[in-house]
Amino acid sequence: MCGIVGYIGKKKAPRLLIEGLKRLEYRGYDSAGISVINKDKIETVKAVGKIHNLEKRLNSINTESSIGIAHTRWATHGEPNETNAHPHMDNDNLVAVAHNGIIENYHILQQELKKEGAEFKSATDSEVLAHLIASYIKKDFPLDEAVRRTMERIEGTYGMVVLCRKYPDKLVAARNGSPLIVGIGENEFIVASDASAIVEHTRQIIYLHDRELIMLNKDEYSIKTIQDIHVQTTIEDIDWDIEMIEKGGFDHFMLKEIFEQPEALHNAMRGRLDEKEMTTHLGGLSSVKDRLRQTKRIIITACGTSWHSALIAEYMFEELAQIPTEVEYASEFRYRNPIITEEDTVICISQSGETADTLAALREAKRKGALTLGICNTVGGTISRETDAGVYLHAGPEIGVASTKAFTCQLMVLSLIALKLARMRNMSHIQGDKIITALKKIPFQVKEIFESDKIIQELAQRFTYAQNFLYLGRGYNFPVALEGALKLKEISYIHAEGYPAAEMKHGPIALISENMPVVVIATKNSIYEKVVSNIEEVKARKGYVIAIATDGDKTIAKKADKVIYIPETLSFLVPILSVIPLQMLSYYIAVLKGRNVDQPRNLAKSVTVE
Ligand code: F6R
């Protein structure tokens, strides 16, 4: 959600900042801007729309400058236009600020600053930061102190980078609740809201913590807290390389990420299967092994696609490990008064590790004494740092806004956890062996599903202009139906709903006609016959049925209009396979409709605001 880049060093900042913004464009993309220091002036250029619109205007600032800040925006306060785009300035162009997050008390601060003569131009909450920092600079506070005092006054979330023309060789960045990473190069620093803007320059990074600020000149840095206490920090290494964040010959990141799933799933499993004890090694959980063994209940909290993984995990944990499990939207969990005890384990699932609602739910669970675990993809994200323990997905960076490989890798990691918990409790060695054998086949089985590419593309052609889609599934496949519908609506903008198949007769059946494609996930399992009956109900009302079925199922071919086959596996692993054709179908429909697949309208990759 919004992207920030800042640079100080020897290179030409504007070009570097533009490249950084392009890497972050997936986070937010309705407008963008850059400010640089040129001698004793701040020069700014902004543009509505994509980064290339901004790039075309780059010559209107000093392209030789070696210090600057930049921002790509996803509007929260104020519509996307140039005035509302960042960086924001005070009235004397003394200070420029690029900000992610929400300043909750901006209205009060605005009133106060207006009395001192500040004139606000934009409809954003962020502009108040520039005026407030400038007001301290005018009172002769040095730049870092002006930012620190501003941090004391503001309520809300921020990741911000600040330039001041009075300090042309300094850059200050601060964070609270919105991620900021500082890349350390040779006589240069790059500040960014995520590592993808940094990896091509350096692998050495510092994660800034909440309520900390960093002061940079090209040769050194110092970090302090909002309480003005100096902080010693550790420098860490990012283990990605640049190819991992490029399209590698695919038309879109989403397609690349769909096709990367066999490898990503392999990586999620790598080194984690214990084929002697028929359990899993999850190093990230070893410090909490005893508490996990004693846990009486699991609560999983997440948003969006990650919430769908949580629903599948609920079934897995109860079936395999026999631990009562509940799932709750993080946005709901954080505002009720959930009953949580020290015997509970709260699992937060988040690809980005930064989702504001999931983070707030985590903090609520910690406050109440639960053991907290994080299942995250982005290494070093806030959720993984604040949980007691956790397991990374190792899916590699997911750039397409619609989550694909993170979802299947979440399911893989959750299966590994379920196996571990089950083997700690009631599951036999023989059953563990069966599961490990099935797990090892999964990456190859995903590859087999790609062979249905042609059938899926034909279906996409047939239904490019459908107005509605219905997705049905039962048991482990019910959350897959939800995920299929979410994928389709977010990238094609076609209305779609997911339902437990048996619920159809309680309402949605009224929608079925010859114009309604119904995707039914009807793999072979204990409730297969019942799902077949649901297909009959749809056919009786002339709906067009696309079935996702188990290889070799001849019955379904007679009932459905089109069948996409997936290989056979254990019931709890089926979702990793059954979601693949649904991801592909959504992708191809969205492409045929000419949608911007990687950056669908109104969405952002990492939702760091409420
Ligand atoms: C859908 C999608 C979103 C995210 C949700 C949570 O394709 O990507 O629904 O799943 O915003 O994000 P994370 O997993 O980063 O917490």
Produce the secondary structure layout.
Elements: E1 3-8, H1 13-24, E2 31-38, E3 41-48, H2 51-56, E4 67-73, E5 88-89, E6 95-100, H3 106-115, H4 127-138, H5 143-153, E7 158-164, E8 171-176, E9 181-185, E10 188-192, E11 204-207, E12 212-216, E13 221-225, E14 230-231, E15 236-237, H6 253-259, H7 261-269, E16 273-274, E17 279-280, H8 289-294, E18 297-302, H9 304-321, E19 325-329, H10 330-333, E20 344-350, H11 356-367, E21 371-376, H12 382-386, E22 389-392, H13 405-424, H14 429-449, H15 453-462, E23 468-473, H16 477-492, E24 495-500, E25 517-522, H17 528-540, E26 544-550, H18 554-559, E27 562-566, H19 574-592
Parallel strand pairs: 18-19, 18-20, 20-21, 21-22, 23-24, 23-25, 25-26, 26-27
Antiparallel strand pairs: 1-4, 1-10, 2-3, 2-4, 5-6, 6-7, 7-8, 8-12, 9-10, 9-11, 11-15, 12-13, 13-14, 16-17
The structure holds fructose -6-phosphate (F6R).
